[in-house]
Write a structure and sequence with these properties.
With about 190 residues, the protein is of the alpha/beta class. It has a single domain, classed as 3-Layer(aba) Sandwich (Rossmann fold), CATH 3.40.50.360. It has five helices and five strands, in the order E-H-E-H-E-H-E-H-E-H. Strand 1, helix 1 and strand 2 form a beta-alpha-beta unit. The chain binds flavin mononucleotide. The site of flavin mononucleotide (FMN) has 12 residues, from helix 1. Keywords: Oxidoreductase.
């Protein structure tokens, strides 16, 4: 069985985030041999090209954290039919300095939850377009549209609906297979 370390980014800094609960659920459901670790974004300042010559330590740490993992799951809310600004800001840091994009060749999956019927689908389409531009191999199926209902996830990340838990297990397995496929392929210099 493969040993994998998967980083996850939560695209919400809300203290009551349902997407953080979903992240906790994924942590709990990770298969044996797979470890999920958070890559935090909340302390990143607003990105500016002025930083390109000398990135602040927090941004260096963020990029190093992505470099250190075998794959990344981005777990995000939808804001105004797109991704939240805090997540876009983190992605902008990841893309710079020019030529040193952190997601180049990095297996990546997106998933998110909201109470809405389309469950962050619009945000995820925007996010996948960004990741495609970054040259990140991205999980196509299953798509991670999780509609939250009251009590679906506990604060500790327990999933109270068996079908949802089964879906998340399958989602993690599919992403693990993608990560393993790319682990065998050297990333272009
Ligand atoms: C500025 C803003 C815009 C939002 N836009 C959407 C939206 O386009 N689609 C949607 O399903 N929910 C939208 N919501 C509701 C979020 O899904 C809901 O607040 C959710 O709890 C956010 O995720 P979080 O709890 O992980 O922060 C929006 C919320 C905010 C604050």
């Amino acid at each position: 069985m493969s040993e994998r370390t998967i980083g996850y980014i939560v695209g919400s800094i809300s203290s009551t985030s349902i997407n953080r609960r979903l992240a906790k659920a994924l942590e709990r459901l990770a298969p044996e041999g797979t470890t999920l670790v958070e890559i935090p974004i909340k302390d990143l300042p607003f990105y500016s090209p002025d930083f390109d010559a000398d990135f602040p330590q927090v941004a260096r740490d963020f990029k190093q954290a992505i470099a250190d993992v075998d794959g990344v799951i981005i777990i995000t809310p939808e804001y105004s039919r797109s991704i939240p600004g805090v997540l876009k800001n983190a992605l902008d840091w990841s893309a710079r300095p020019w030529g040193q994009g952190s997601f180049d060749g990095k297996p990546t999956a997106v998933i998110g939850t909201s109470g809405g019927g389309i469950a962050t689908a619009a945000a995820q389409q925007h996010l996948k377009a960004i990741l495609s531009h970054y040259n990140a191999p991205t999980l196509g199926q299953p798509e991670g549209y999780v509609q939250t209902t009251p009590g679906l996830f506990t604060e500790a990340g327990e999933v109270t609906n068996e079908q949802t838990a089964d879906f998340l297990v399958g989602y993690l397995q599919a992403f693990g297979a993608l990560v393993d496929r790319y682990a065998a392929v050297p990333v272009a210099a």
